[in-house]
Amino acid sequence: MSLLSVAKDVCAAVGVAYPTSVFSGISDSRTMQEMLAVANEIAQRVAYDTRDWTRLRAVANHVGDGAVVPPATVMTGTTAFTLPANYKRMLLTSNVWRTNYSHSPMKFISDTDEWLNRRARNSEDGGGEWTLLGGQIHTYPILPAGHTIYYAYVDKNCIELRAPNGAYNGPGDTFLSDTDTYALDERLLKLGMIWEWKSRHGSPYAEDMGTYTDAIMNSMGRDQPAPIIYGRGSHTGADPWPS
Q: Distance between CA atoms of 186 and 95, rounded to whole angstroms?
């Protein structure tokens, strides 16, 4: 469903004029200016503020180049790697792992001052450490050449940019044309826009917000594998679950 299709449904629900386009003549249309602002706000709110949707999860890898070059006896190499261009944030449960020590994840140092102090003291956790600074992920100790650190993160691009004929033009983080589509469930976008629009215009919106909340909770519950329940299977001996 395109942005224009979603906007038409929203307009029908909130009682404003049915649009033929969101973007055409938007500079002279206060209604479509607000519609676009609401669409972008709800799109990002659903994508990033509710859960780590599997559709937007991605994995980054950074390869080390550390080496000891004689006559030196200390390894030198890269300790800071630029975050991916589509990086939004870490998953809520993200860890950073390294291939040369896979027994446990690296330790996250959240406080920058503590990170600097530990580097000054040449102190480290046995499994390695990492932090985020200046759009980069910093790791210690130096990752040897050929070894990799990897971690999961949330993709910042929740919009699928589309050409007028519907052809995919790449990812984006805001709507740029009528034909663009939402990477997640368009119904969540529509329901969120309806109650947000009514809220901004002083209309009763409690029921609409409740409908949206029910829908997003349902989607969140389905956005993960169902638990595997072990029942009867091939086995020897007495049946542990007699009829």
A: 31
Please report which helix (H) or strand (E) contains residue 183, including its range: none
173 found inside a domain:
no
Same domain, 61 and 150: yes
Task: Render 184-218 in DSSP notation, one character per residue.
Answer: S-HHHHHHHHHHHHHHHTT---HHHHHHHHHHHHH
Domain match, 22 and 48 both = yes
Angle value at C-alpha 65, between 64 and 69, nearest 5 degrees: 145
Q: Exposed, middle or buried by CB within 10 Å (0-12, 13-18, 19+), for 216?
A: buried
Predicted confidence band of residue 228 (pLDDT cuts 50, 70, 90): low
Q: What number of helices (H) and strands (E) belong to the chain?
A: 5, 11
Q: Rounded mean pLDDT of 212-230? A: 82
Its domain, for residue 96, covers 56-155
pTM of this prediction?
0.86
22 and 41 in a common domain: yes
Q: Is the dihedral of CA 26, 30, 36, 41 positive or negative?
A: positive
CA dihedral sign, ordered 61, 156, 58, 96: positive
Query: Are the beta carbons of 153 and 94 closer than 8 angstroms?
Result: yes
Confidence of residue 232 (pLDDT cuts 50, 70, 90): low
